[in-house]
Design brief:
Blueprint (H helix, E strand, L loop, with lengths): L1 E6 L9 H10 L7 E7 L6 H4 L4 E8 L7 E6 H5 L12 H11 L6 E8 L4 H17 L7 E4 L6
Parallel strand pairs: 1-2, 1-3, 3-5
Antiparallel strand pairs: 4-5, 4-6
Helix pairs in contact: 1-5
Length: about 160
């Protein structure tokens, strides 16, 4: 199974990128092998959606990856470096990605993060949705990792 897990808080615009991508993708007919998950603010409870998956693409708002706003695609290791050393009430996706090798049984799935930095406008949400679908189906070995600059694109 391949999963797209959209996370964030739809009631705070600065953190609504994941839910906005979820809403867009939920209106589409997805391939049967791709499961769309509204991860909300579930944190470590998202482990159940990672366990047993072949590939997982998280979609979330990100901050501080570049000076320019846009859509970023990171692998699990790149996203996990943002995690603090200890678990506390603020542990989020970065911490979850950091502990995956210690808590999951069997082979780890390919894990990627599609992050929207800056305002989640229509262009950013559409780009993130398309990247998420491509990555879920084809994986990250096809040259997607990096930054998509949306500075000249308006939503």
């Amino acid at each position: 199974m391949k999963r797209i897990i959209c996370i964030g808080n739809r009631y705070r615009f600065c953190d609504a990128a994941g839910p906005m991508v979820y809403d867009l993708l939920a209106r589409r007919d997805l391939l049967p092998e791709v499961e769309l998950v509204d991860g909300g603010l579930a944190g470590l409870d998202l482990l159940r959606f990672v366990q047993g998956a072949r590939r997982v693409v998280f979609v979330d708002a990100v901050v501080g990856f570049d000076e320019a706003d846009g859509v970023f695609v990171l692998n699990a290791d790149e996203a996990a470096v943002c995690a603090e050393a200890a678990f506390d009430h603020a542990a989020g996706l970065a911490y979850l990605l950091r502990v995956l090798p210690q808590v999951l049984d069997g082979q780890l799935p390919e894990v990627l993060l599609v992050g929207i930095q800056g305002e989640p406008n229509d262009s950013a949400v559409e780009t993130a949705a398309e990247l998420s679908l491509s990555l879920a189906v084809e994986g990250g070995a096809r040259g997607f990792l990096g930054h998509v600059d949306l500075s000249g694109v308006r939503g």
